[in-house]
Every structure is written in structure tokens, then in C-alpha cells.
Write a structure and sequence with these properties.
With 406 residues, the protein is α+β, with helices and mostly antiparallel strands. It folds into 2 domains: 288 residues, Zn peptidases (Aminopeptidase, 3-Layer(aba) Sandwich); 113 residues, 2-Layer Sandwich (Alpha-Beta Plaits). It contains 12 helices and 17 strands. Strands 2, 3, 4, 6, 7, 8, 15, 16 and 17 form a 9-stranded mixed beta sheet that branches. Strands 11-13-9-14 form a 4-stranded antiparallel beta sheet, with helices on one face. A two-stranded antiparallel ribbon has the order 1-5. A hairpin with a 5-residue loop joins strand 2 and strand 3. Helix 3 crosses helix 12. The radius of gyration is 22 Å and the shape is globular. Bound molecules: (2S)-amino(hydroxy)ethanoic acid and manganese (II) ion (2 copies). The site of (2S)-amino(hydroxy)ethanoic acid has 5 residues, from loops.
């Protein structure tokens, strides 16, 4: 099955950064080229492809009972700046390889099997993650999508249309019974499978992400002339907030509370000018919604106190605050049975990363199949899963799909 490894290597070259890093941001030329490459491979094996108004791409293998709800699988191919070549792509190209494998067995699915390339799982362009699956599940309405702007101030609708995606945003939402079940193959993006020397993870819970955008306005001024006691330095306020983000997560009673200030910009960015403005994007998540929401409340409280003390004006926008997902027990069992039947060692586990399955699980019975990540690394150029590990994931996915679609 080295075909998939070659395809993943080819895919990794559709990037605006030097290989082995991958940067493939929503609606950029490299994103569009990668989509075309994928669609070409799907059409080569006779899958019926449709693309929706924002670029979610559906490649369907018609079953013998096409009137029944299909079985879905898939993931994403967009990649955050300077990341790796396996996050998401293993689920898209692994899904294609699983279909090719089942076809090679001359298997005829009763339920259609549909491979999905979700648009924009990563939050890079519009700050919100899972844009495609969020709209498919109705968690993001067309009206809300129209308000999204990228860092250059470009509106979502103009950018998607310029990328060639037209059509009515109202048609993106899927009906409640569109899929009979949904299974996503993905790299673990953490250390557990490798540390416990296990082949396959089956996901029973997916962490609940939230994203805050914090804007700070101080006074700025001359770095030499403005003495310390009268400063209103937005940069230092932002730094204090960044420290509070880390402390609140560390002090949480849940070990799954994680918080990251992934973006921290100050203006005017001149060495001899006191920062007048600061902009922070904060990612706060947990598998437990109570401790996640408590950490959120504590953070908002601390931001208010820090800004009050430093005479800084501030705004907090809660961009998304999603519930965690619980996967379908029967589907977890089916995937576990498939892996064990192949002689693979397995573990039922939580996903600390979020995925499009977080939103598929809001509508359909869902689970995920994980393969190990070398040293638990992801979102870095040295992200790696071996050909053997990928093949085990593809085999497990193929037999799970075969079972559910029969
Ligand atoms: O951030 C995440 O959890 C996902 O990889 N986008
Ligand atoms: Mn990712
Ligand atoms: Mn991913």
C-alpha cells in the first residue's frame, strides 16, 4: 500500500512553505491545487464528486441501496503555518485508500460510502476551527459566516467566491439523517499510543474547544519620555494576561484543561514606542465542559482585573465555545472489533485535539480511529507516522466501513 505514502508526499508539496514543513491555508492557491489533486484521484476510481458552497467536497461510492443513509468518512487537508504532512491528510487519503482496498476485494456496499474533504478544519484564516463541519452541522449559520473576516480584513464571502466557491450558503447544512454513521481516521497528535506501544486508538470523547479574541488599547507614547508610573502599556498587560492563561490552566482541577495564547501581536511594533495596542487569540479547551467553563470565567475575571489595574481598555470576543463530543458506543465497538480482528493492539481514548468529528457527532453516530504520532508531535514539520502505522489505520478504517455499510 505504498500508493498512499507517495500520494501524501505529493500532497505535502502543495504548500507555501519549504518541505518537510507544510503550510496550506484555506482558499489559497496551494489549497485549491491540493483539492484538485484529491478530486482527480477520486474520479479515477469512479467516485461521484460534489463540492458545496464553501468547498466541502463529497466523493460518493454508490451502494446497492442508495436510498439508505450513507456511511461517511474523511477529514481535512488544510494545514496551519509550518506544520506537518499527516494531520488531517491521513484521514482524507486514508479514506480513499480504504475505499480502493474494499473495491479490490470486490466488496459491494449496501449503504453508499462517502468520503469527505472538510473545508478549513484549521482556524488559521478566519480564527474559527472546523468552519466546514460547523456549517454542515448548523453550529455556524450563513449569517454568522458572512461576518467572518481574515487578518487582512477580507470578508469570508468575498474570499470564498474569489476562490471559485459560489452557491447558496444555506445548502451547506446537512439533514439530521444524512449519514448513518461517520468514522474519521486521524493521527493521535499526542504521545499515548506510542508510549503504550499500541497500534490503534478508538476515540470515545473529543475535547471541547473555545477561542477568545482579546483586544487591548493603552496609551502608547515615547519610550524615553514617558516615565514608568504613568504608562498605560498594552503590551505588558497582554503579557500578564498570557501568564494568567497558563496559570489558570495549570491550576485547574482537571488535567485535561489546556490553554494557549497562540497569537500575541502588539502595535506599533517600534523599539522606542510603548505598545499602544495588543491583540491576543487564546485557545482554551478541556474534555470536561464544567472545568473548561470555569477556566473561561476565571480568565475573563483576570483580564478585567489586569486591565482595571493598568488603565487599559479591552474587549473580549468569545469566537467559539463548543460542547465536547461523546462518540457512539456501538461504532466504537465496531472499530475496536475491526482492529482486533486484524491483530492490532487497541485503546479506547479521549481526543485532546478537536476534529471535524466533533461536529459530525452533533448529528450522527461518530467515532475516530487514531494512529500513533512519533514522539507525540504534531503541528510541526517533524510530525510523523510511519507507513506501517498508516496502513494499520487504513485497514482498520476499511473493515469498519465494510461492517457499517453492509
Ligand atoms: O487544534 C486542533 O485541535 C486541531 O488540530 N485543529
Ligand atoms: Mn490540526
Ligand atoms: Mn486535524
Amino acid at each position: 500500500m505504498n500508493r498512499i505514502h507517495q500520494e501524501l508526499d505529493t500532497l505535502a508539496r502543495f504548500s507555501s512553505s519549504e518541505f518537510p514543513s507544510v503550510t496550506r491555508v484555506l482558499y489559497t492557491q496551494e489549497d485549491l491545487n491540493a483539492r484538485d489533486y484529491f478530486i482527480g484521484l477520486c474520479e479515477e476510481i469512479g467516485l461521484k464528486v460534489r463540492v458545496d458552497a464553501i468547498g466541502n467536497t463529497y466523493a460518493r461510492w454508490e451502494g446497492t441501496a442508495p436510498e439508505l443513509a450513507a456511511v461517511g468518512t474523511g477529514s481535512h487537508i488544510d494545514a496551519i503555518p509550518l506544520s506537518g504532512q499527516y494531520d488531517g491528510t491521513v484521514g482524507v487519503f486514508g479514506g480513499l485508500e480504504a475505499i480502493r482496498y474494499l473495491k479490490s476485494l470486490d466488496f459491494k456496499p449496501k449503504r453508499s460510502i462517502e468520503l469527505v474533504l472538510f473545508t478549513a478544519e484549521e482556524p488559521t484564516r478566519f480564527a474559527i476551527g472546523c468552519l466546514g463541519s460547523r456549517m454542515m452541522s448548523g453550529q455556524l449559520t450563513p449569517e454568522q459566516a458572512l461576518k467572518l473576516k481574515d487578518k487582512e480584513g477580507g470578508f469570508f464571502n468575498d474570499i470564498r467566491e474569489a476562490a471559485g466557491f459560489k452557491g447558496d450558503l444555506n445548502d451547506v447544512k446537512l439533514s439530521e439523517n444524512y449519514y448513518h454513521a461517520f468514522v474519521e481516521l486521524h493521527i493521535e497528535q499526542g504521545p499515548r499510543l506510542e508510549k503504550e506501544n499500541l497500534d490503534i486508538g478508538i476515540v470515545d470523547k473529543i475535547a471541547a474547544p473555545s477561542t477568545l479574541i482579546v483586544k487591548l488599547i493603552g496609551e502608547g507614547g515615547h519610550a524615553g519620555a514617558v516615565l514608568m508610573p504613568i504608562r498605560k502599556d498594552a503590551g505588558v498587560a497582554g503579557a500578564e494576561i498570557m501568564m494568567a492563561v497558563e496559570r489558570i490552566a495549570k491550576d485547574s482541577e482537571s488535567e485535561d484543561t489546556v490553554a494557549t495564547t497562540g497569537i500575541f501581536d502588539i502595535l506599533p511594533r517600534a523599539v522606542n514606542s510603548i505598545p499602544k495596542e495588543a491583540y491576543l487569540e487564546i485557545d482554551l479547551r478541556d474534555t470536561n465542559i464544567e472545568t473548561r467553563d470555569k477556566a473561561l470565567a476565571d480568565l475573563k475575571q483576570e483580564i478585567a482585573e489586569i486591565c482595571e489595574k493598568r488603565h487599559i481598555k479591552y474587549s473580549i470576543e468569545l469566537l467559539n465555545c463548543d460542547p465536547p463530543a461523546t462518540c457512539d458506543e456501538n461504532l466504537v465497538h465496531t472499530a475496536e472489533k475491526a482492529a482486533k480482528g486484524l491483530g492490532y493492539s487497541t485503546k479506547v481514548m479521549t481526543s485532546h485535539a478537536y476534529h471535524d468529528s466533533l461536529f459530525m457527532a452533533q448529528l450522527f453516530p461518530t467515532t475516530m480511529i487514531f494512529i500513533p504520532s512519533k514522539d507525540g508531535v504534531s503541528h510541526r514539520p517533524d510530525e510523523y507516522s510511519s507507513p506501517e502505522e498508516i496502513d494499520k489505520g487504513v485497514q482498520t478504517l476499511a473493515l469498519t466501513l465494510k461492517d457499517v455499510a453492509s
